[in-house]
Amino acid sequence: MKNLFLMRHAKSRWDENVSDQFRSISSTGETKTIRVATYLKEKLSLQFDKIFSSNATRAKETSVIVNEILFPSQNVELIKELYTFSSFILDDWIRKIDNEYENVLIFGHNPAFTDLTNQLGNDIIYNLPTSGFVWIQFDNDNWKYINKGKTIKIIVPKEIK
């Protein structure tokens, strides 16, 4: 069984004079990410075999916050190809994940994450907000052959009290 966890990067700053890839997260984004990570730790007690992140600054910063709360000793692997807005590119990349990993967390971007959630999960969402989290479970032991899975959990920051 494979478990795919997607977390969209935190809300980013727009006041910086940098290209899209180098925008950092805002204070609001940091607060919401801490809220989601704390919820994950306290309510779900999840374990991840491998954590990947887009190499975009806002995704890296989001992964650092989550990792510090959940798994301070676990490394996050930065992947250039995960800086994508295409669910097709993301889907292709996921199918190449090493099968030794059962539970994989990826930090990345919309619209790829919303579209991929709708393609691979059994619940339809309109938009995965910043710092949003999705858990999709597949009744399959090979990433290459994952098909429609079961959406186990969708976490939206504003719904966490």
UniProtKB/TrEMBL annotation:
Pfam families (UniProt xref): His_Phos_1
Matches recorded under InterPro entries: His_Pase_superF_clade-1, His_PPase_superfam
SUPFAM superfamilies hit by this protein: Phosphoglycerate mutase-like
Top-rank lineage group of the source organism: Bacteria
Protein name from the UniProt record: Phosphoglycerate mutase
Organism name: Chishuiella changwenlii
High-level lineage: Bacteria, Pseudomonadati, Bacteroidota, Flavobacteriia, Flavobacteriales
